[in-house]
Amino acid sequence: MERVITGNSAKLIDKYTIEQIGIPSMVLMERAALGVFDEIKNNYYNYLIVCGNGNNGADGIALSRMLFLNGENVTVLLVSKGSGSEEYNRQLDIVSKIGVEIIDYANEENLDLEYLEEAFSSYDCIVDAIFGIGLNRNVSGSYYDIIEKINESDNDICSIDIASGICSDNGKVMGIAVKADITVTFGEYKIGHLAYPGREYVGELIKKDIGFVYDEDLNNQDEANDTNDCFMITKSDLVLIPKRIERSNKGSYGKLLVIAGSKDMSGAAYLCGMAAYRMGAGLVHIVTHNNNVGILKDKLPEAVFTGYDNLSDENGNINESEFDKLREVIQKYDNIVIGPGIGVNDVSNKLVEFVLESKKNTIIDADGINVISANKNLFNLLHDRCILTPHMGEMSRLTNKSIGEISENTFETCKQFAEKVSINLILKDANTIISLNDGSSFINTSGNEGMSTAGSGDVLSGILGGLMCIGCKFDMIAPLGTFIHGLSGDFAKEKMGSASLMARDIVDGISDVMLLKENTY
């Protein structure tokens, strides 16, 4: 598990390393510049380093010296008015003395945007060292124009630490941002690197160790209360999947109740149930419409089935005697998945209501989420043993926010909703965000574009249900299950390619993940 930090945390780590450990700021700066130098040296003929007047700009100036002394043709373009930080001024003095070409765009009145267009066209690589991780307001004025011209150029672009214009805390574009081909960051990944829309601007992301020392008490400091760091699950965390016991039976690995499917819609129930079995669940019991039972018995004979039919009459009135049979089944299970393919109607509303009232470990997906969105009184029944798995459209209905609004602020939207409703939330996107009701968050980095296919979410629900059954720590089910889902899709892509990938291939990929876990740990 890796930490993914905010810009504020990065500043605190930097401050601790310098003031408490005693590593000089200039030493860290030299190592940062060297890290970028190692990635881009000898790759281009002409380099333009575009520098603001903070420490990110100072990193860029130090880089220009290294490139110059390596025999490269390099020019520094200064885009901030006035003097900068102490480190910036020292680095600028050094490169002035050794003969690096410096163009002071911000302070020379005869340089305009037309000049920028001509200048950018004469370089092969533009290095973005304008803002770094400290940006906290929208880009405007000449900075906006400069970034716009950088993006319009045909050059390769390398950003130092983070693409200028991206908020390092949440990935938000602050008016405009550099569209980098490569970003070299230092110490830890930042949320803005991984959360959309920022992820679209960093290009290839490379992390360098430059000698930061992390203060383990950082999160207890008053000044760190707004850090809101999160974590990233990696393959090493597969060790968190509980091991099989040599002397065991199906009861040792839990029972999962899957309430899925509706009339003539059996696929969601199958994919969910099959995924749960692949994750190691001891028994899967599927509750679905009678029309589906025969089909599912053929496709998934390992499962147990309870079929229903006339739960309501033609006027929508609930048949209580029939519904009582389902209540009896639900009461026997501690782990429940509800929602895939159940529709949005009076019956599904009643099913969701009863499951929530039972206070069981519950995964709520797809139509289960839509039922809650359509019946806001059900919000009051949500509890801390619930995991909701909305995609952007479902999240829009849950929050009454537009998809665009959520997309621009994915990380904070997910975190705030999970804390407000006291649930664990998986907000599905290209980089899925997971927020737990204890305030912690995760960014998922597994998965691929081929998983944008019907049934993929049903497989995720089954994986989560399977983890519940086999005894995974509850607060790890959402982040670990999401990572396993994506990794299963990555294994499937290796075999099928992304265009041909189907949900059933993701189910098959679960076996590859479990085999990796068994062979490694």
Largest sheet: 9 strands, mixed
Overall 3D form: elongated
Overall tally of domains: 2
Structural class: alpha/beta
The tally of helices reads 18
CATH topology of the largest domain: UDP-N-acetylmuramoyl-L-alanine:D-glutamate ligase
Gyration radius from CA atoms, angstroms: 27 Å
Uncertain parts: 221-225
Structure description:
This protein has helices at 7-21, 25-40, 55-69, 86-98, 113-121, 141-152, 191-194, 267-278, 290-299, 320-331, 346-358, 367-374, 392-399, 403-408, 410-421, 456-469, 474-496, 503-520; strands at residues 2-5, 46-51, 73-78, 101-104, 125-129, 156-160, 182-186, 189-190, 204-208, 230-232, 255-259, 283-289, 304-308, 335-338, 361-364, 386-388, 424-427, 433-435, 441-443. It has 521 residues and is α/β, with parallel strands linked by helices. The protein has 2 domains: 2-232, 3-Layer(aba) Sandwich (Rossmann fold), CATH 3.40.50.10260; 254-520, 3-Layer(aba) Sandwich (UDP-N-acetylmuramoyl-L-alanine:D-glutamate ligase). The strands form 3 sheets. It has a 9-stranded mixed beta sheet with strand order 13-12-11-14-15-16-17-18-19, with helices on both faces. Strands 4-3-2-5-6-7-9 form a 7-stranded parallel beta sheet, covered by helices on one side. Helix 9 links the parallel strand 12 and strand 13.
